Amino acid sequence: FELLSQLEKGVSKNNQKQYIQDYIAGNKHELITYEIVPSNRDDTYKQINFTTHSPHLMTIYGNDMILSAPDLSLPDLEKPDKRVLPLQINYPIYETDTVTYIIPDHLSPVHTLSHHDIENKFGHYKVSYLHGNGELKMFRSLLIHPGKYDPEDYASFFHFINAIKDIQNSSPLLLNQKK
After folding, report:
1. Torsion angles phi and psi, residue 159, rounded to 5
2. HEC string for the chain
3. Which of 61, 75, 91, 101 could be stapled to 136 by a disulfide with Cβ–Cβ 3.0 to 4.6 Å?
4. 135-179: per-residue pLDDT in tens?
5. pTM for this one?
């Protein structure tokens, strides 16, 4: 919230765009447009809408197409056996997004898309899909709770984050020719 507020009010448009490209859209995507939605004084959230061009998210193999979803930004964590200090998360980390794929009429998903829902004391991750009307929509949300986690709890936190990464890395969407 604070970061986006500062970005909106205290940074030039060029620096805003560069920051959003580097830290929000990521290196797999070319930022096309963005809007930091103005918020009211009492709002508890800050919203940013952006559009990217992501040429590396689609691969064609013969009559099949593989779609990859853009990754949520997750930290690279040190191995639990290397961690000696508590992990401090000062503020909740919350990301939500909807990725919409326009599916050509001659293609359809090969398999049922897996929904995932992980919830524990560290946070919540959910991904679900909706297919219809020539579109495939992926809905994702990630919440990481603030807190101070002792080194004994760190291994569980590490596994929580890696479980999310495993879902992101193992969930390509395979489409093929309708029969």
Report:
1. -70, -35
2. CHHHHHHHHHCCHHHHHHHHHHHHHCCCCEEEEEEEECCCCCCCCCEEEEEEECHHHEEEECCEEEECCCCCCCCCCCCHHHCCCCEEECCCEEEEEEEEEECCCCEEECCCCCCEEEEECCEEEEEEEEEECCEEEEEEEEEECCEEECHHHHHHHHHHHHHHHHHHHCCCEEEEECC
3. 101
4. 888 899 999 999 999 998 999 999 999 999 988 877 677 778 776
5. 0.73
